[in-house]
Amino acid sequence: MSTKTNQLEISETTRTGNSNAFTKPPIVGVIFLGRKRPGFDMEWGRQMEERVRARLRHSGFTIFEPSEKAVDDASLRWVFAACEEKHAEVIVLLQTTMGDGRLAPTVAQLWPDPPVLWATPENPVEDMVSSCSLVGTHAWASTLAQMGHTFEIVYGDPDAAGTQQRFAEAVRLAATVRRLRSVRLGVVGGQAPGYFAMGADPFTVHQGLGVQLQTYSLIEFENMVHSFGDDVVATDVAKVKALGIPHKDTTDEDLPMASRLYLAMKAFLDTENLDALSVRCWPEMPNVFGQWPYLGISRLVDEGRAVTCEGDADGAIANWIGESLGMGRCYLSDWLEHDAETITLWHIGAAPFSLSPPVGEPGGPQIARHFNIKKPTVIESTIRAGMPITLLRFWRLNGAYYLTAREGETLKPKRHLMGTNGLARLNREDPREWFEELCHEGMPHHLVVFAGHHAAMLRRLARILNIRFI
What we know:
CATH class of the largest domain: Alpha Beta
Number of domains: 2
Oligomer: single chain
Radius of gyration: 24 Å
CATH superfamily of the largest domain: L-fucose Isomerase, Chain A, domain 2
Number of helices: 14
Strand order of the largest sheet: 1-3-2-4-5-6
CATH topology of the largest domain: L-fucose Isomerase, Chain A, domain 2
Shape: elongated
Distance between the termini: 49 Å
Protein backbone atom coordinates (compact mmCIF):
# COMPACT_ATOMS: atom_id res chain seq x y z
CA MET A 1 0.00 0.00 0.00
CA SER A 2 1.24 3.46 -0.88
CA THR A 3 2.83 5.55 1.88
CA LYS A 4 2.16 8.83 0.10
CA THR A 5 0.34 11.34 2.31
CA ASN A 6 -1.71 14.44 1.67
CA GLN A 7 -1.39 16.88 4.56
CA LEU A 8 -3.25 20.11 5.25
CA GLU A 9 -1.42 22.06 7.92
CA ILE A 10 -3.23 24.96 9.56
CA SER A 11 -1.79 26.72 12.56
CA GLU A 12 -3.59 28.57 15.34
CA THR A 13 -1.91 31.12 17.58
CA THR A 14 -1.49 29.85 21.11
CA ARG A 15 -3.19 31.99 23.73
CA THR A 16 -1.02 34.85 24.88
CA GLY A 17 1.28 34.04 27.75
CA ASN A 18 0.38 30.36 27.95
CA SER A 19 3.46 28.18 27.74
CA ASN A 20 1.61 24.98 28.57
CA ALA A 21 1.93 22.70 25.55
CA PHE A 22 -1.25 20.86 26.48
CA THR A 23 -3.39 23.85 25.53
CA LYS A 24 -1.95 24.17 22.02
CA PRO A 25 -4.32 23.24 19.18
CA PRO A 26 -4.25 19.47 18.64
CA ILE A 27 -3.26 17.75 15.42
CA VAL A 28 -6.44 16.22 13.98
CA GLY A 29 -6.35 13.08 11.86
CA VAL A 30 -9.27 13.06 9.39
CA ILE A 31 -10.19 9.65 8.00
CA PHE A 32 -12.78 9.21 5.26
CA LEU A 33 -14.49 5.84 5.32
CA GLY A 34 -14.95 4.61 1.75
CA ARG A 35 -16.72 1.73 0.01
CA LYS A 36 -15.26 -1.25 -1.81
CA ARG A 37 -18.23 -1.28 -4.18
CA PRO A 38 -20.19 1.76 -5.42
CA GLY A 39 -23.44 2.55 -3.69
CA PHE A 40 -25.75 5.46 -2.99
CA ASP A 41 -24.91 8.75 -4.76
CA MET A 42 -21.14 8.56 -5.10
CA GLU A 43 -20.95 11.98 -6.80
CA TRP A 44 -22.81 13.58 -3.86
CA GLY A 45 -20.42 11.86 -1.49
CA ARG A 46 -17.42 13.18 -3.45
CA GLN A 47 -18.81 16.72 -3.38
CA MET A 48 -19.42 16.50 0.36
CA GLU A 49 -15.84 15.29 0.94
CA GLU A 50 -14.48 18.33 -0.91
CA ARG A 51 -16.71 20.68 1.07
CA VAL A 52 -15.48 19.12 4.31
CA ARG A 53 -11.86 19.51 3.22
CA ALA A 54 -12.42 23.14 2.26
CA ARG A 55 -13.97 23.89 5.65
CA LEU A 56 -11.20 22.12 7.55
CA ARG A 57 -8.70 24.54 6.02
CA HIS A 58 -10.33 27.22 8.15
CA SER A 59 -10.95 25.12 11.27
CA GLY A 60 -8.10 26.60 13.32
CA PHE A 61 -6.63 23.12 13.88
CA THR A 62 -3.70 21.33 12.28
CA ILE A 63 -5.32 18.81 9.95
CA PHE A 64 -3.73 15.64 8.60
CA GLU A 65 -5.55 13.45 6.07
CA PRO A 66 -4.00 10.16 4.93
CA SER A 67 -3.76 9.73 1.16
CA GLU A 68 -6.18 6.80 1.08
CA LYS A 69 -9.62 6.03 2.46
CA ALA A 70 -10.36 3.24 4.91
CA VAL A 71 -12.44 0.61 3.13
CA ASP A 72 -11.48 -2.58 5.00
CA ASP A 73 -9.56 -3.72 8.07
CA ALA A 74 -6.12 -3.52 6.43
CA SER A 75 -6.61 -0.02 5.03
CA LEU A 76 -8.13 1.18 8.31
CA ARG A 77 -5.06 0.00 10.19
CA TRP A 78 -2.81 1.73 7.67
CA VAL A 79 -4.56 5.11 7.89
CA PHE A 80 -4.48 4.95 11.69
CA ALA A 81 -0.74 4.22 11.57
CA ALA A 82 -0.29 7.22 9.24
CA CYS A 83 -2.19 9.45 11.69
CA GLU A 84 -0.13 8.24 14.62
CA GLU A 85 3.08 8.86 12.66
CA LYS A 86 1.96 12.50 12.34
CA HIS A 87 1.23 12.59 16.13
CA ALA A 88 -2.52 13.07 15.72
CA GLU A 89 -4.26 13.59 19.06
CA VAL A 90 -7.81 13.46 17.70
CA ILE A 91 -9.29 11.13 15.09
CA VAL A 92 -12.29 12.26 13.03
CA LEU A 93 -14.16 9.59 11.05
CA LEU A 94 -16.47 10.58 8.19
CA GLN A 95 -18.60 8.45 5.89
CA THR A 96 -20.12 10.79 3.32
CA THR A 97 -21.65 7.64 1.86
CA MET A 98 -22.36 4.81 4.27
CA GLY A 99 -19.20 2.86 5.13
CA ASP A 100 -18.60 -0.64 6.47
CA GLY A 101 -19.92 -0.91 10.04
CA ARG A 102 -17.74 -3.97 10.64
CA LEU A 103 -14.75 -1.62 11.02
CA ALA A 104 -16.02 0.02 14.21
CA PRO A 105 -14.59 -2.68 16.54
CA THR A 106 -11.18 -2.19 14.92
CA VAL A 107 -11.34 1.53 15.76
CA ALA A 108 -12.09 0.60 19.37
CA GLN A 109 -8.96 -1.56 19.40
CA LEU A 110 -6.69 0.93 17.66
CA TRP A 111 -7.74 4.16 19.40
CA PRO A 112 -8.26 4.13 23.18
CA ASP A 113 -9.52 7.73 23.19
CA PRO A 114 -12.90 9.08 22.04
CA PRO A 115 -13.06 9.42 18.23
CA VAL A 116 -15.21 12.09 16.60
CA LEU A 117 -17.91 10.66 14.30
CA TRP A 118 -19.02 13.25 11.76
CA ALA A 119 -22.17 12.52 9.73
CA THR A 120 -22.95 14.71 6.71
CA PRO A 121 -26.43 15.49 5.32
CA GLU A 122 -28.40 13.95 2.46
CA ASN A 123 -28.80 15.65 -0.91
CA PRO A 124 -31.88 17.82 -0.27
CA VAL A 125 -33.04 18.00 -3.90
CA GLU A 126 -33.07 14.33 -4.94
CA ASP A 127 -35.83 11.78 -4.36
CA MET A 128 -33.40 8.93 -3.70
CA VAL A 129 -31.37 8.31 -0.55
CA SER A 130 -28.02 9.84 -1.38
CA SER A 131 -25.62 8.93 1.44
CA CYS A 132 -27.08 7.26 4.54
CA SER A 133 -24.25 9.02 6.37
CA LEU A 134 -26.23 9.54 9.56
CA VAL A 135 -27.52 5.95 9.44
CA GLY A 136 -23.98 4.63 9.11
CA THR A 137 -22.72 6.89 11.88
CA HIS A 138 -25.57 5.71 14.11
CA ALA A 139 -24.51 2.10 13.51
CA TRP A 140 -20.93 2.92 14.45
CA ALA A 141 -22.01 4.85 17.54
CA SER A 142 -24.18 2.02 18.84
CA THR A 143 -21.37 -0.48 18.32
CA LEU A 144 -18.82 1.67 20.15
CA ALA A 145 -21.27 2.34 22.99
CA GLN A 146 -21.96 -1.38 23.39
CA MET A 147 -18.18 -1.90 23.60
CA GLY A 148 -17.90 0.72 26.34
CA HIS A 149 -15.95 3.07 24.06
CA THR A 150 -16.93 6.72 24.29
CA PHE A 151 -17.07 9.09 21.30
CA GLU A 152 -18.30 12.48 20.13
CA ILE A 153 -20.87 13.02 17.36
CA VAL A 154 -21.05 15.87 14.84
CA TYR A 155 -23.90 16.08 12.34
CA GLY A 156 -24.50 18.70 9.72
CA ASP A 157 -23.42 20.64 6.68
CA PRO A 158 -19.74 21.66 6.92
CA ASP A 159 -20.61 25.22 5.89
CA ALA A 160 -23.19 25.69 8.66
CA ALA A 161 -22.02 27.75 11.64
CA GLY A 162 -23.63 25.34 14.10
CA THR A 163 -21.78 22.40 12.57
CA GLN A 164 -18.49 24.26 12.71
CA GLN A 165 -18.97 25.11 16.38
CA ARG A 166 -19.97 21.54 17.20
CA PHE A 167 -16.91 20.22 15.34
CA ALA A 168 -14.56 22.58 17.20
CA GLU A 169 -16.07 21.60 20.55
CA ALA A 170 -15.90 17.89 19.70
CA VAL A 171 -12.21 18.16 18.78
CA ARG A 172 -11.39 20.04 22.00
CA LEU A 173 -13.35 17.54 24.09
CA ALA A 174 -11.64 14.54 22.51
CA ALA A 175 -8.21 16.16 22.84
CA THR A 176 -8.86 17.07 26.47
CA VAL A 177 -9.77 13.49 27.37
CA ARG A 178 -6.63 12.19 25.67
CA ARG A 179 -4.37 14.84 27.20
CA LEU A 180 -5.71 14.28 30.71
CA ARG A 181 -3.91 10.94 30.68
CA SER A 182 -0.63 12.85 30.45
CA VAL A 183 -1.40 15.73 32.81
CA ARG A 184 0.94 16.10 35.76
CA LEU A 185 -0.55 17.87 38.80
CA GLY A 186 1.51 19.19 41.71
CA VAL A 187 0.23 19.95 45.20
CA VAL A 188 2.41 21.87 47.68
CA GLY A 189 1.68 21.16 51.35
CA GLY A 190 -1.67 19.35 50.97
CA GLN A 191 -5.14 20.81 51.38
CA ALA A 192 -6.11 23.58 53.79
CA PRO A 193 -6.75 22.35 57.37
CA GLY A 194 -10.17 20.81 57.84
CA TYR A 195 -11.11 20.78 54.16
CA PHE A 196 -10.76 17.02 53.87
CA ALA A 197 -12.88 16.72 50.71
CA MET A 198 -10.30 18.78 48.79
CA GLY A 199 -7.55 16.31 49.67
CA ALA A 200 -6.16 14.52 46.62
CA ASP A 201 -5.69 10.76 46.51
CA PRO A 202 -3.23 9.97 43.68
CA PHE A 203 -4.86 6.66 42.80
CA THR A 204 -8.43 7.96 42.57
CA VAL A 205 -7.26 10.98 40.57
CA HIS A 206 -5.47 8.68 38.13
CA GLN A 207 -8.23 6.11 37.87
CA GLY A 208 -10.92 8.75 37.42
CA LEU A 209 -9.22 11.14 35.00
CA GLY A 210 -5.83 9.67 34.11
CA VAL A 211 -4.00 12.53 35.85
CA GLN A 212 -0.69 11.98 37.66
CA LEU A 213 -0.42 13.61 41.10
CA GLN A 214 2.88 14.66 42.69
CA THR A 215 3.14 16.20 46.18
CA TYR A 216 5.73 18.62 47.52
CA SER A 217 6.50 19.96 50.97
CA LEU A 218 6.47 23.58 52.05
CA ILE A 219 10.21 23.21 52.72
CA GLU A 220 10.78 22.34 49.06
CA PHE A 221 8.71 25.35 48.09
CA GLU A 222 10.63 27.60 50.50
CA ASN A 223 13.91 26.49 48.97
CA MET A 224 12.58 27.50 45.56
CA VAL A 225 11.39 30.88 46.88
CA HIS A 226 14.88 31.76 48.12
CA SER A 227 16.70 30.37 45.06
CA PHE A 228 16.31 33.47 42.89
CA GLY A 229 18.93 36.16 42.74
CA ASP A 230 18.04 39.75 43.54
CA ASP A 231 18.50 40.71 39.89
CA VAL A 232 15.90 38.15 38.78
CA VAL A 233 13.49 39.39 41.44
CA ALA A 234 14.06 43.03 40.47
CA THR A 235 13.29 42.23 36.83
CA ASP A 236 9.99 40.66 37.84
CA VAL A 237 9.11 43.53 40.16
CA ALA A 238 9.51 45.85 37.17
CA LYS A 239 7.00 43.67 35.26
CA VAL A 240 4.51 43.99 38.11
CA LYS A 241 4.90 47.77 38.21
CA ALA A 242 4.36 47.90 34.45
CA LEU A 243 0.88 46.42 34.98
CA GLY A 244 -0.09 49.72 36.60
CA ILE A 245 -2.10 48.11 39.39
CA PRO A 246 -2.46 50.62 42.26
CA HIS A 247 -1.73 49.90 45.90
CA LYS A 248 -4.62 50.00 48.35
CA ASP A 249 -2.82 49.52 51.67
CA THR A 250 0.50 48.09 50.45
CA THR A 251 3.68 49.66 49.05
CA ASP A 252 6.37 48.85 46.49
CA GLU A 253 8.41 47.39 49.35
CA ASP A 254 5.99 44.45 49.40
CA LEU A 255 6.61 43.56 45.77
CA PRO A 256 9.96 41.69 45.96
CA MET A 257 8.53 38.88 48.12
CA ALA A 258 5.37 38.82 45.99
CA SER A 259 7.62 38.32 42.96
CA ARG A 260 9.56 35.55 44.71
CA LEU A 261 6.32 33.67 45.41
CA TYR A 262 5.22 34.13 41.81
CA LEU A 263 8.58 32.99 40.46
CA ALA A 264 8.58 29.96 42.78
CA MET A 265 5.15 28.77 41.59
CA LYS A 266 6.12 29.34 37.98
CA ALA A 267 9.40 27.48 38.51
CA PHE A 268 7.56 24.50 40.00
CA LEU A 269 5.34 24.37 36.93
CA ASP A 270 8.30 24.57 34.57
CA THR A 271 11.10 22.65 36.28
CA GLU A 272 8.86 19.88 37.64
CA ASN A 273 7.11 19.56 34.26
CA LEU A 274 3.72 20.27 35.85
CA ASP A 275 0.57 21.17 33.95
CA ALA A 276 -1.36 22.28 37.04
CA LEU A 277 -0.42 23.34 40.55
CA SER A 278 -2.18 23.97 43.86
CA VAL A 279 -0.50 25.41 46.95
CA ARG A 280 -1.56 25.28 50.59
CA CYS A 281 -1.43 29.00 51.26
CA TRP A 282 -2.83 29.10 54.78
CA PRO A 283 -2.01 29.08 57.59
CA GLU A 284 1.70 28.60 56.93
CA MET A 285 2.69 30.90 54.07
CA PRO A 286 2.10 34.31 55.70
CA ASN A 287 3.99 33.09 58.76
CA VAL A 288 6.92 31.67 56.76
CA PHE A 289 7.21 34.32 54.05
CA GLY A 290 5.41 37.27 55.63
CA GLN A 291 3.09 37.34 52.63
CA TRP A 292 0.28 35.57 50.83
CA PRO A 293 0.88 34.22 47.29
CA TYR A 294 -2.32 35.60 45.78
CA LEU A 295 -0.87 38.33 43.58
CA GLY A 296 1.31 35.63 42.04
CA ILE A 297 -1.64 33.29 41.56
CA SER A 298 -3.66 36.05 39.85
CA ARG A 299 -0.80 36.71 37.47
CA LEU A 300 -0.25 33.05 36.63
CA VAL A 301 -3.93 32.35 36.03
CA ASP A 302 -4.16 35.38 33.76
CA GLU A 303 -1.21 33.94 31.84
CA GLY A 304 -3.21 30.78 31.21
CA ARG A 305 -1.55 28.62 33.87
CA ALA A 306 -3.68 26.29 35.99
CA VAL A 307 -2.88 27.37 39.57
CA THR A 308 -5.14 27.30 42.64
CA CYS A 309 -4.85 28.08 46.33
CA GLU A 310 -5.66 26.12 49.51
CA GLY A 311 -4.39 22.85 48.07
CA ASP A 312 -7.50 22.45 45.89
CA ALA A 313 -6.23 19.76 43.52
CA ASP A 314 -9.50 19.17 41.67
CA GLY A 315 -9.89 22.94 41.33
CA ALA A 316 -6.52 23.03 39.55
CA ILE A 317 -7.63 20.19 37.27
CA ALA A 318 -10.83 22.11 36.47
CA ASN A 319 -8.72 25.17 35.69
CA TRP A 320 -6.59 23.10 33.28
CA ILE A 321 -9.66 21.53 31.65
CA GLY A 322 -11.18 24.97 31.10
CA GLU A 323 -8.00 26.13 29.38
CA SER A 324 -7.89 22.98 27.26
CA LEU A 325 -11.52 23.47 26.17
CA GLY A 326 -10.92 27.10 25.26
CA MET A 327 -13.10 28.48 28.07
CA GLY A 328 -10.55 31.11 29.12
CA ARG A 329 -9.40 32.23 32.54
CA CYS A 330 -10.58 30.63 35.78
CA TYR A 331 -11.74 32.17 39.07
CA LEU A 332 -11.77 29.85 42.10
CA SER A 333 -14.43 31.08 44.54
CA ASP A 334 -16.11 30.31 47.82
CA TRP A 335 -19.90 29.92 47.79
CA LEU A 336 -20.31 32.59 50.45
CA GLU A 337 -24.09 32.92 50.66
CA HIS A 338 -27.20 32.63 48.53
CA ASP A 339 -30.87 33.48 48.30
CA ALA A 340 -33.64 32.34 45.95
CA GLU A 341 -32.00 34.06 42.97
CA THR A 342 -28.30 34.76 43.53
CA ILE A 343 -25.01 33.34 44.82
CA THR A 344 -22.42 35.59 46.42
CA LEU A 345 -19.05 34.67 44.94
CA TRP A 346 -16.24 35.73 47.25
CA HIS A 347 -12.66 34.70 47.82
CA ILE A 348 -9.45 35.88 49.39
CA GLY A 349 -8.20 37.87 46.40
CA ALA A 350 -6.67 35.77 43.62
CA ALA A 351 -9.03 36.35 40.70
CA PRO A 352 -7.44 36.92 37.29
CA PHE A 353 -7.29 40.57 36.29
CA SER A 354 -9.14 39.85 33.04
CA LEU A 355 -12.40 39.02 34.87
CA SER A 356 -12.56 42.36 36.68
CA PRO A 357 -13.05 45.91 35.38
CA PRO A 358 -9.90 47.54 33.96
CA VAL A 359 -7.26 48.99 36.25
CA GLY A 360 -8.36 52.36 37.57
CA GLU A 361 -12.09 51.77 37.18
CA PRO A 362 -14.40 51.03 40.14
CA GLY A 363 -13.93 47.38 41.08
CA GLY A 364 -10.69 47.15 39.13
CA PRO A 365 -7.73 45.28 40.67
CA GLN A 366 -5.77 46.77 43.55
CA ILE A 367 -2.81 45.32 45.43
CA ALA A 368 -3.94 44.98 49.03
CA ARG A 369 -3.53 43.23 52.35
CA HIS A 370 -5.54 40.17 53.34
CA PHE A 371 -8.97 40.94 54.79
CA ASN A 372 -8.34 38.89 57.94
CA ILE A 373 -4.62 38.39 58.52
CA LYS A 374 -3.41 41.81 57.48
CA LYS A 375 -0.44 40.82 55.39
CA PRO A 376 0.22 41.48 51.69
CA THR A 377 -0.30 40.68 48.86
CA VAL A 378 -3.78 39.95 47.57
CA ILE A 379 -5.66 41.31 44.58
CA GLU A 380 -8.79 43.11 45.68
CA SER A 381 -11.26 43.30 42.80
CA THR A 382 -14.87 42.85 41.75
CA ILE A 383 -15.98 40.35 39.11
CA ARG A 384 -17.43 42.30 36.17
CA ALA A 385 -21.20 42.66 36.12
CA GLY A 386 -23.28 41.71 33.07
CA MET A 387 -21.01 38.80 32.10
CA PRO A 388 -22.35 35.36 31.12
CA ILE A 389 -20.67 32.74 33.31
CA THR A 390 -20.51 29.02 33.99
CA LEU A 391 -20.15 27.75 37.57
CA LEU A 392 -18.69 24.25 37.77
CA ARG A 393 -16.94 21.77 40.00
CA PHE A 394 -15.12 18.44 39.62
CA TRP A 395 -14.82 16.29 42.76
CA ARG A 396 -14.42 12.75 44.04
CA LEU A 397 -16.84 10.70 46.15
CA ASN A 398 -16.51 7.02 47.05
CA GLY A 399 -13.71 6.51 44.54
CA ALA A 400 -15.54 8.06 41.57
CA TYR A 401 -15.48 11.47 39.91
CA TYR A 402 -18.45 13.81 39.61
CA LEU A 403 -19.04 17.02 37.64
CA THR A 404 -21.62 19.75 38.05
CA ALA A 405 -22.13 22.91 35.99
CA ARG A 406 -24.72 25.65 35.78
CA GLU A 407 -24.99 28.79 33.65
CA GLY A 408 -25.86 32.30 34.74
CA GLU A 409 -24.73 35.90 34.64
CA THR A 410 -22.91 38.25 36.96
CA LEU A 411 -24.65 41.17 38.66
CA LYS A 412 -23.39 44.21 40.50
CA PRO A 413 -22.70 43.07 44.09
CA LYS A 414 -25.12 44.26 46.74
CA ARG A 415 -22.28 45.48 48.96
CA HIS A 416 -18.51 45.86 48.90
CA LEU A 417 -16.43 42.95 50.23
CA MET A 418 -12.68 42.95 50.68
CA GLY A 419 -10.89 40.36 48.56
CA THR A 420 -12.62 39.25 45.36
CA ASN A 421 -16.31 40.13 45.29
CA GLY A 422 -18.94 38.91 42.84
CA LEU A 423 -22.63 38.14 42.51
CA ALA A 424 -24.12 35.49 40.19
CA ARG A 425 -27.68 34.80 39.14
CA LEU A 426 -28.40 31.31 37.80
CA ASN A 427 -30.44 30.69 34.70
CA ARG A 428 -33.65 28.78 35.47
CA GLU A 429 -32.60 27.35 38.85
CA ASP A 430 -32.96 28.17 42.52
CA PRO A 431 -29.44 28.28 44.05
CA ARG A 432 -30.80 26.92 47.34
CA GLU A 433 -31.93 23.68 45.70
CA TRP A 434 -28.67 23.25 43.77
CA PHE A 435 -26.60 23.89 46.91
CA GLU A 436 -28.52 21.34 48.97
CA GLU A 437 -28.19 18.69 46.28
CA LEU A 438 -24.44 19.31 45.97
CA CYS A 439 -23.94 19.10 49.73
CA HIS A 440 -25.57 15.66 49.80
CA GLU A 441 -23.33 14.58 46.91
CA GLY A 442 -20.19 15.60 48.83
CA MET A 443 -19.11 18.52 46.67
CA PRO A 444 -16.10 20.27 48.26
CA HIS A 445 -15.51 23.86 49.14
CA HIS A 446 -14.97 25.84 45.93
CA LEU A 447 -16.83 26.74 42.77
CA VAL A 448 -14.85 27.27 39.59
CA VAL A 449 -16.05 30.22 37.51
CA PHE A 450 -15.46 30.81 33.78
CA ALA A 451 -16.78 33.53 31.52
CA GLY A 452 -19.27 32.30 28.92
CA HIS A 453 -21.88 29.55 28.85
CA HIS A 454 -20.33 26.08 28.66
CA ALA A 455 -22.66 23.74 30.58
CA ALA A 456 -23.77 21.74 27.54
CA MET A 457 -20.17 21.09 26.50
CA LEU A 458 -19.24 20.12 30.08
CA ARG A 459 -22.14 17.66 30.19
CA ARG A 460 -20.72 16.07 27.05
CA LEU A 461 -17.27 15.99 28.69
CA ALA A 462 -18.70 14.10 31.66
CA ARG A 463 -20.28 11.59 29.29
CA ILE A 464 -17.08 10.80 27.38
CA LEU A 465 -15.12 10.66 30.66
CA ASN A 466 -17.70 8.21 32.06
CA ILE A 467 -18.27 10.36 35.13
CA ARG A 468 -21.59 11.36 36.69
CA PHE A 469 -23.03 14.79 35.92
CA ILE A 470 -25.05 16.39 38.75
